[in-house]
Amino acid sequence: MLGLKKKARAEDVALALLTIANGSEESNAGWIRYLKELDVKLNEGRVLDELKCLRVFVVELAVLATLRDPSRQRVFDAYRAPFEKMGSLDPESHSALAGLATRVVQYRKAAAMPHHIGPAWTVGCAFAEFCGAKEDIRIVGMAGIEFKLIYKLTTEYLSNFKIV
Hints:
- This protein is mostly helical.
- It has helices at about 10-20, 25-35, 45-65, 70-85, 100-110, 120-130, 135-160, and strands spanning about 5-10, 160-164.
- It is built from seven helices and two strands.
């Protein structure tokens, strides 16, 4: 039967989305390997922190674009709850991810900027700047690829479920 979707609770979907936002050890290692191969001198920890912020933003963007209310709001709230508990969505927080709230806002602004290539480019430019590699086309391109991969993975995942 075509068109049947699996039923899933918002909390379970959100947990899977958190896994996507966290990325994998292999993906993170690939980024570091790529930077070393290109002889790009960036702080690896900073790049990985920015990568996490980028992924969190892209998953949020995909949720907002793919789901409709009330499911969207339930999944969105469940997805953001762990970050809020850590204080990372509070700009006044002093947690390790305190900058996450600010970065999400900055990435939203970058995604909204018109560009003929699209938001993957403008978000990639913001990512490169946050990493200390402003206008480095290699970093912009890699971030743009990451944006597209995470967005596609998230939207395809969400399209398989009916939120109950």
